[in-house]
Specification:
alpha+beta, globular, 2 domains, Alpha-Beta Plaits, 5-stranded antiparallel beta sheet, disordered N terminus, about 20% strand
Length: about 230
């Protein structure tokens, strides 16, 4: 059981670290002070969220130590911690407020210009913006994703993890609706760049979204928990 908790804890730490804001390395256009202030607030919110998660893990460790000292069984404390791990790893369905983003290719342009098509990096970019803005859970076309879930082109279709998805592409994210919407509305930001390229992007705020559990648990082929020194 101890080895199991170490492995699960390793996966949670990997997920937390992966949820750190991801920004493209390319040059970004100049932003006005109000827009920069929005980004600063988002980073502060993300930092406070991580600090809260670290404090919760520390409290859990103290609970285990107290249970050992008092001679009580660890079943209750372990059950609570396991339930939290399952939530972080997307193994249980969740619901809450958030935003729904619908992206689809644009119509053919004048002079025989081909229509714009949504590509894998477009969906990944929108997802990264939402994670950076504090999204707590996310799904793409009804498929639960983590910050480590890959989105790629395979066999002529976009794949979310191992599952093929088709347009229109729907990204649903649970979190603070105002922060999520503001992150996607920044002038010169990622979504504005998609629209300027001909991609149709619609953002809607919802008071309640339902996101399903992951169909399979995350697997690691090469990474292993580091043995205690």
């Amino acid at each position: 059981m101890a080895l199991f908790l170490v492995a699960v804890g390793f996966m949670v730490v990997a997920q937390m670290r992966a949820r750190q804001p991801i920004r493209q390395a390319g040059a970004l256009p100049s932003w006005r002070l109000p827009e920069l202030a929005v980004l600063v607030r988002q980073q502060e919110d993300a930092r406070r969220l991580l600090e809260t998660e670290v404090d919760a893990l520390r409290r859990g460790a103290r609970d285990y130590e107290a249970a050992i000292v008092e001679g009580r069984g660890l079943s209750d404390a372990m059950a609570r911690e396991l339930a939290r791990y399952r939530l972080v790893l997307g193994l249980v369905p969740v619901e809450g407020p958030g935003v729904r983003v619908v992206a689809r290719g644009g119509a053919p342009g004048m002079g025989g210009i081909l229509p714009s098509a949504v590509e894998a990096q477009d969906l990944s970019g929108v997802a990264n913006e939402l994670w950076s803005a504090g999204a707590e859970a996310m799904a793409v076309n009804g498929i639960r994703v983590l910050a480590t879930t890959g989105i790629r082109l395979a066999g002529g279709a976009l794949q979310v993890g191992p599952t093929a998805v088709f347009p229109p592409y729907r990204i649903e994210a649970i979190g603070d609706p105002a922060a999520l919407q503001a992150a996607l509305a920044i002038r010169g930001g990622f979504v504005e760049g998609l629209r300027s390229a001909g991609i149709q992007v619609a953002v809607q705020v919802h008071e309640r979204l339902r996101i399903p559990a992951r169909r399979t648990a995350e697997s690691f082929r090469y990474a292993r928990p580091k043995p205690d020194q």
